[in-house]
Amino acid sequence: MDERLRHHILELLEGKFAHIDLETAVSGFPISEINTRLDGSPHTAWELLEHIRLAQWDILKFSRDAKHVSPDFPDGYWNKAAASPKDWKRSIAQVLADLEAMRELVSDKDIDLFAQIPHGDGQTILREALLVADHNAYHLGQFMLLRRMLEKQ
After folding, report:
1. Using an 8 Å Cβ cutoff, are 49 and 143 in contact?
2. What is the pLDDT of residues 85-103, one digit of tens each?
3. Radius of gyration over alpha carbons of the chain, in Å?
4. SS3 for 119?
């Protein structure tokens, strides 16, 4: 069961089946529009990407490091500053690197997915991996809606 569960979680983190993956979502996104705020949308594409990066980074760091201090909630999870194309590319690279690091945690057969993280208050690697997958899927859905709205302008 453990191996099958790991396999399913890895697929979920990868963005398979009913979920879109980050690389597909950002592929071809017009760099000139990353800071555009559309009527009816609370976030820009940049804000969504950075929120995914910040939250995923925090979850990963918490999962591995007892000394990690999370950002203030909620403001510490939202970057409201405008981005440059370099910022955009760097953020994408970091999301992908941290996602791969989370996948490595899940893949590590020496890690009990159900064991409580010693420095947490009941969290497990299983819960944190599912949280990353769920959170990313939610905000990538928002990202895709924003992208489609921009394409129709």
Report:
1. yes
2. 999 999 999 999 999 999 9
3. 16
4. coil
